[in-house]
Specification:
By secondary structure, the protein is mostly helical. About 75% of the residues lie in helices and about 5% in strands. The longest helix has about 140 residues, at about 45-190.
Amino acid sequence: MAMPGQGSATAEALLMAEVGPEAVQVLKPYYSALVGVADLARTTGGQQLRSLLRHLGVLTCKVATLEDGIAQWRAVAEKSQGQLAQASAALAAARQSAEAERSRAAALQAQLLALQQEREASSVVARSNAQWLQVEAQKAHAELQRNRGEVHALNEEIRRLRVELQVTSTKQRQQESQLEAERLRAAGADLSAENAGKAKARLEAALRRVDDDQRESVDSLTTHVQDERRKLERRLEAQHQELIAARKVVADREAVLAEVRCILPSTLHCVDFLRDTDSPALKLARGPVLLSMNTSVRVPVLALRWGPGISLNSTPSWQALRGGLFALLHQLQTGATLPEQVELTVCEANGRWFCCEQSEAPRFAALLLFQALKRDMPVAATCRVGSPHKVMSLQEEMTQHNGLSVLSSGAIWRTPPQDEEDFLRALLVDSPLRDVVNDFLYHQRRSRVEDAFEEELKRDLAGPFSRREREQAVWPSGGGRASEASEVAAVQVPSPDRRMSASTLTSAAQAASAAAAAAAARERAGVERGPPI
């Protein structure tokens, strides 16, 4: 009974020596079978069974190492999923904030349109008030001239009355002299004193009555003339004050126009164009259809308005810098292109000129920006006047459309991306080099990820050396087999096993690179879609 127990202990020792304690712990469910194989190898002395046990221990150590790596990568994947969930939450919050900003921008746009309409209404009222004041000033001036004529006529009447008074006085003196002569003749003819006195009294009484009547009429006429003069003076003073107020208002308007003329001299050219009823553009727009195809005229850009439904994409993208808004603005500023060389399609409705083609919105915007840079000179573009049928189809819509501002649409971003690679991707959205640059950035990022994984694997593989030292300390009598087992655990195995370990590590690195590439592709797809506008 003692011999079988001693053989079992010897088989277990052989199993521990050939397989290793760590592999025995892993293969504990099959411990009895392994002990049987070890006992068979001991009793028969077969080196093949011992090699099989040794190879089984090596494979078990490798499997344990790979399971540790898988657990580590699983933790990394869970951490990446958590980061992806956080990024998704941040993206949802950013979209909500973008929606809020969009609604706020729409509200501000509506307020701006309301303010512009109020400004136009106030301008119309101001112009009507100025015209009314000018008409009132003309009426006051005409009334003043008429009052002056009436005063002059009254002065002439007073002068005539004075002349009549002098004539009456002269006649009275002549009558007195005649009476005196009659008295002398009566005295010389021996008339009685009583008859002469009565005649003289009658003549004097008649003369006094005539004199009193004339003086009363002159006094009443003088009083009436003075009253009329005072009334006319008061009326003239009131009209003079109104004229001064009207002149003050006109002076204020002229000062405002002078400031506008000083700040933006090109506005006067635009106003002259809009008020000119004999301009070639207006004749071409309202006249009969021409037989020739030459329907191009020069129109100031400040006289043009945005057509209904037109929007503008102001993103500085590759196409905009290559041949769009910003490219044309640069050519105009440097003198490579003249404003006359830029062609637009316009149409007229109720005295307003509209740019009615969506494809020409970048050109019109570039001309407006160039006019803002050149305020001292009018910028006029070569415009093709649309047909009357096109104007008639948009007539009702254009009468209700302001056209002084344009909406934004198709923008890739509102604020520039903070990351340089994201900004480059946003810039190259409509570029033929987009795929090439994205592939280059993808390979750069993939190489960085692979380098980081290789460094991490090197740091992880540096740990088993301490395990080998511990095994040497635990199994000092194991000799070459214990040292060989520790070398296997430390991936220091002969050439076939080393090639197997290298292929396993390469497969793990490729799987990690594929996961990083998928994350980079998802991020790139998110950047290409861009934030909602």
